[in-house]
Amino acid sequence: MFLNIFHFLIVLIDNKLGFLSGTGRIRHTFYSPALFRKMTKRTRFAPSPTGYLHVGGARTALFSWLHARKHGGAFILRIEDTDLERSTAESVNAILEGMTWLGLEYDEGPLYQTKRFDRYNEVIDQLMEQGLAYRCDCSKDRLDALREHAMAHKEKPRYDSHCRNRNIDPDTPHVIRFRNPDDGVVVVDDMVRGRVTYNNSELDDLIIRRTDGSPTYNLTVVVDDSDMNISDVIRGDDHLNNTPRQINILQALNKEIPRYAHLPMILGDDGTRLSKRHGAVSVMQYMEQGFLPEALLNYLVRLGWSHGDQEIFSQEELIQLFDIANVNKSASSFNTEKLLWLNQHYIKSADPYHLAHLLSPHLGRLAIDPTEGPDIVEVVKAQQERANTLVEMAEISEFIYRDFDEFDENAAKKHLRPVARQALEEMKKSLQALTSWDVEHLHDCVEQVSTSLDLKMGKVAQPLRVAVVGRAASPGIDVTLYLVGKEACLRRIDKALAYIEKREQQAKA
RNA sequence: GCUCCCUUCGUCUAGUGGCCUAGGACUCCGGCCUCUCACGCCGGCAACAGGGGUUCGAGUCCCCUAGGGAGCGCCA
To answer: Which amino acid residue lies closest to nucleotide B36, measuring CA to C1'?
Structure first.
């Protein structure tokens, strides 16, 4: 019953997302001739929907996607949801959202494993018939005892094949185990790790069907990769040790062995395993924090991969230059500082119109309505070189849209002093008289006041800046005045003059 | 514990036996530019985990040690 409800939900989500996301749902049915499939590279990303898309998963997806794109192949998304307890529809949603934001479009999928139980059972039955799998009714207690005993004797815990020839009654509760070869070796010829050899004596008879009848990971992965004609399996290196078992199952099934590439993991900035305490781990958190997808992608691709000394890559360059063979073997630590630098780079070089579109929601979060102010594109142009993130850009642009409450203490102390009063008063007069409020005239205006008072431009511009912005940093003074607008400028200069006045009174008292 | 994997500046990396006096990037520190903040430009600090071999020659090949990671589930 639970299973059925679950299926129903998945189908619902599937349909809904297809409608919502729009991307990545093109089905390349023309690939169907099996022969043609074998000739083209087919990669997949196969997350289990038990949480959001984190940066490690995103990089795995990226490498897989690049490998497929580079070779003109197909990139397939498969949802590994056989763990009915932990899989959720929200997670599926979050993963698809993350991939869409990053622009990792898939050619086929999302395919759900929960929809393929019949096929897994078919394969398991086939293995049973061929004597390559068997029923086992060993109790949890027995298995635990086995494990404890092995550990105590400094051995690797292995199932002892106790039920191999016991012919257990199909009607009693049981699991099904794969009969692993007893001797010989399995060689994994990995595209990044090189040749890794395992002794079959290290492996045991793993469970492929649970007591409740559901198939387990190592079986489903093998069946799916094979059925979907995956030519290159690119995944995290936590799966390296599963690979020999999977190869053995594939061989028992008489199926072709795909090429493997096991990617090193991504660690937090302190060198320990990435977790929530490292701040942002979900790719959507990066969106919320004002990162551009191209920056995150560029950062992620350089984690473990390089092309000489090149740091900046366009998507086209990546597809052209990426080579899975150049991927490092060792784990790397996530460094937010460098990501910020890349983000700034992409903000700097982005099209202002495009950026304006992305900035709007971040202004919205500060309860600013971008239409109640100057052209947002002008704001973006003015701030493009001084923001590391869109969040920062919104924050440093707040003064354009509304009056600040207090002057920044240090800035006011330094620039809003009695000596600045004359400059501010002159500026006020001059601005009041100005008929065309544009950058050029505003620039002339500040310059003229400086000259007439025989002051360096900084002596006028800085007090003026603090008066109008509230703090000591902003775009060029002319652009700043222009964006704030005449009315607000005059109002704020008055406020600054009042501040100076008050300060003078206090000094006397 | 056992099996497998990994190890170049703080971080990401270049390096495929002589091009290495170990290069680039981020960070940091100086300086220039400048109306501020940024941007940009110039300069600086900083690494081959340790020990044995092989070789005329080792960051690069081999072995050992140390450190780190993963797997050893009726999780994926």
So the answer is: A473
Is there contact between A476 and strand B, defined as CB under 7 Å from any strand atom?
yes
How confident is the model over A299-349, as pLDDT tens digits? 999 999 999 999 999 999 999 999 999 999 999 999 999 999 999 999 999
> A484, A458 in Cβ contact below 8 A?
no
**Residue A85 pLDDT exceeds 50:** yes
Q: Does domain A276-349 have CATH number 1.10.1160.10?
A: yes
State if pTM tops 0.90: no
| Average pLDDT across chain A, whole number | 89
Place of tokens 């056989």: A82
The residues pairing with A177 across neighbouring beta strands, listed in sequence order, are: A134, A207
Q: Evaluate if residue A115 carries a pLDDT over 70.
A: yes
Compute how many other C-beta atoms are within 10 angstroms of the C-beta atom of residue A223: 23
pLDDT at residue A154, as a whole number: 86
Tokens 């060029």 belong to A476
Measured CA to CA, the distance from residue A74 to residue A221 in angstroms comes to 18
- Name the fold adopted by A117-263: Rossmann fold (3.40.50)
CATH of A403-509, picked from 2.170.270.10, 3.40.228.10, 3.90.1010.10, 1.10.10.350, is: 1.10.10.350
- Give the model's pLDDT for residue A274: 78
Span A224-283, pLDDT tens digits: 999 999 999 999 999 999 999 999 999 999 999 999 999 999 998 887 787 666 766 899
Rounded-to-integer distance, Cα A58 and Cα A265, Å = 12
Write the CA distances from A368 to A115, A249, A291, A357, A385, integer angstroms: 46, 59, 20, 14, 21
pLDDT at A39: 66
Secondary structure (DSSP) of A84-131: TTT--HHHHHHHHHHHHHHT---SEEEEEGGGGHHHHHHHHHHHHHTT
> Average pLDDT in the A385-403 region?
96
Which nucleotides of strand B lie within 7 A of protein CB? 1-8, 10-15, 23-27, 34-40, 68-76
* Short-list A320, A273, A364, A340, CA closest to A54: A273
Q: Domain ranges in chain A? A: 1-31, 117-263, 276-349, 350-398, 403-509
Q: Which tokens belong to A247? A: 């190869």
Residue A472 CB in 7 A reach of strand B: yes
Residues A315, A298 contacting (CB under 8 angstroms): no
Helix (H) or strand (E) holding A232: strand A232-236
Q: Is the C-beta of residue A465 closer than 7 Å to nucleic acid chain B? A: yes
- In whole angstroms, what separates CA A70 from the centre of its chain? 21
Give the pLDDT confidence of A4-29 residue by residue, as tens digits: 333 333 333 333 333 333 333 333 33
Nearest residue to nucleotide B15 when comparing alpha carbons to its C1'?
A: A308
